[in-house]
Each structure stands twice: as C-alpha cells, then as structure tokens.
Structure to design on (324 residues):
C-alpha cells in the first residue's frame, strides 16, 4: 500500500512538571495508508495515547508540547497548523473515539440530536429532514437495533456497547480521512468487543477510512490490524505487517509481550510468562536502549545510545542492537 494519508516523522512530545520538562514520546515515526488499519500497541504510559492526542493537537494545555517532528496529513503539517484551522481538522479530516464514550457524549442530550450535530457540523448544507434521515442511516450502519426509535434515547438509557456504536456513528458522520480509536473496546465485555471490532472492519471496508487503532491488547491487533507498531517507554521498538510480527517477533520486548499472552494449549495452572522488572519512569530514562534494564540479551553497547529503528526485512523494522 503506497497511498500514504498520514506521516508522523520524528515526533517528540514533552510535559511540564512543577520543576522540569519530561519527554513522553521521542523520535516516533510511522505512516498510515488509505484503507488500512495500523495498530499502535504497548503498555499503559508508553506514549501511544500521547501520540494520538498530538495528531489531533489535543495535548493537555499548557503542560503538553510538541518538541520536534512533523505530522503530515497529506501535505499539511498539523504541528504547524494555526489554531483557527484546527476545527476544520478535528472531526472533518481526523475523528477520534475513546475508551469511555460517556466522556464524549453529552448526558443531557438525546443520541439522535448528538449524531445530528455531528452530521450538521460537517455538512451544513443539508436541511433538517435530510440530516434526520442521515442520523437514522448512520445508526443503522453501526447496527443499532430500531434506530428510528433509538434516536430519542439518552446515553444512560443504552448499554456501553451501544454508546460506543453511537460514538463510531458520530465519528464517521463527517466521513473523515482518518479515524483514531483509542482503546475503544477495552471497557467492553469480550462478546461486545468482538461485535465492535467486526463493525469497524466492515465500516472500513465500506468507507476506506484509514484507522489508527491504539490498544494494549495483542489479540485485538491480530483481529483487526494490517500493520502494527510496538511502543515501549515513548519509542517505537518494532513495526511490521501483523502476520510478520506474530510469525517472527524480533525485539526482545515484543517477544516478551507475545510470551505473556495466555494460551489455551498451555498446561493448566502452569505459570504465566512475565517480563521481569518495570518500565523506567519518565525523567529517569537511560541514555541507551530503554528496555535494557529488563532485557535478557542486553549487551554493553545497549547502555550507551538508543538503537536506531532499522529495517530487517521488507516492511519489518526493529530498534535493537541484536540486528544492527
Ligand atoms: Fe535488549 Fe540491547 Fe536489543 Fe535493547 S538493544 S532490546 S537491551 S539487546
């Protein structure tokens, strides 16, 4: 796939504390192509949500700051976009859905009105009757049963899975180029999670929207994504097509993550594999590889400078001195 819609190049992001500035994301680069789903996977606090918020220019203010890099939406550098142009970006070009839809839905407005606002905001030329029809169509598309009746419901009157469907309907109402989904299924039961993933796959096939899917769950990556970038302590440590990553993980952290996934073919009650140690805290990042304090294969050179992300096979890149 060569049809690149988004290029993140050497992005670094910092946050101010009372006494200091801490770097949360460092030198992150990736591409997103039209019609594909790219998974950004890693533990909480690894920088994946900060990366997503940077793309939306939604970093918490005044603490968050993009220190370096470019975020190119086709030819437009989002990092340098004037504040006045941001409303035209958010929702219209790039939409985002979150883990907890209640934080994005207005609890005192009926869902029909909220979806209508999303339709109207981005397609103001439509008259009221057309917008109302479009709302029902959108709810139908996200497989909400009896959509004509559900438009009158308030968010608290529908289930968590339904609320997430409403969020997806609102996000897609503006027909964005890119949908960023930040752990949208994490708070849902497994069966509902499977339904939402299948819905997103079908909608993507229908609309061609590129999806950046953020998750800590490798199972979700396997289910939905075409390519994947693994993040650790603010950096991308491995990126590859999903099949290549699952067939042949290279980075010791990725291998550790894979080994930690529970499997049905293991002997019952056998201990689960874990990655020993903890992620270094922001502000105490080592000068070399950030995984070095947990890596069973760490060498002397690993402690000196961060390993560059290097292509080891077609479309498969790893940041590890074992490969360079
Ligand atoms: Fe381990 Fe060194 Fe590779 Fe880092 S660079 S993952 S410490 S072998």
């Amino acid at each position: 796939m060569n049809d690149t819609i988004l290029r993140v190049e050497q992005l670094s992001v910092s946050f101010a504390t009372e006494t200091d500035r801490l770097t949360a994301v460092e030198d992150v680069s990736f591409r997103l192509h039209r019609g594909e789903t790219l998974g950004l996977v890693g533990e909480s606090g690894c920088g994946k949500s900060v990366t997503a918020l940077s793309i939306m220019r939604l970093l918490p203010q005044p603490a968050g700051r993009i220190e370096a890099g470019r975020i190119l939406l086709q030819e437009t550098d989002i990092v340098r976009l004037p504040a006045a142009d941001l409303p035209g970006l958010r929702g219209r070009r790039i939409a985002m859905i979150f883990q907890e839809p209640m934080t994005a839905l207005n609890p005192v407005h009926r869902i029909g009105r909220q979806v209508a606002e999303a339709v109207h905001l981005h397609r103001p030329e439509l008259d009221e009757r057309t917008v109302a029809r479009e709302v029902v169509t959108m709810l139908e598309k996200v497989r909400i049963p009896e959509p004509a009746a559900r438009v009158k419901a308030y968010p608290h009157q529908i289930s968590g899975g339904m609320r997430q469907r409403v969020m997806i309907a609102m996000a897609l109402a503006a027909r964005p180029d890119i949908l960023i989904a930040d752990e949208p299924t994490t708070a849902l039961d497994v069966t509902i999670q499977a339904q939402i993933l299948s819905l997103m796959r079908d909608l993507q096939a229908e609309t061609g929207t590129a999806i950046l899917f953020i998750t800590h769950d490798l199972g979700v990556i396997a289910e939905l994504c075409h390519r994947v970038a693994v993040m650790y302590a603010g950096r991308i440590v491995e990126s590859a097509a999903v099949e290549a990553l699952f067939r042949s993980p290279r980075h010791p952290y990725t291998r550790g993550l894979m080994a930690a996934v529970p499997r049905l073919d293991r002997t019952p009650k056998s201990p689960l594999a874990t990655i020993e140690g903890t992620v270094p805290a922001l502000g105490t990042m080592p000068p070399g590889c950030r995984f070095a304090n947990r890596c069973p294969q760490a060498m002397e050179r690993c402690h000196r400078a961060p390993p560059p992300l290097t292509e080891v096979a077609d479309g498969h890149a790893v940041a590890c001195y074992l490969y360079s």
User: Anything to note?
Assistant: Residues 251-264+271-324 form one domain. The CA atoms of residues 103 and 320 lie 39 Å apart.
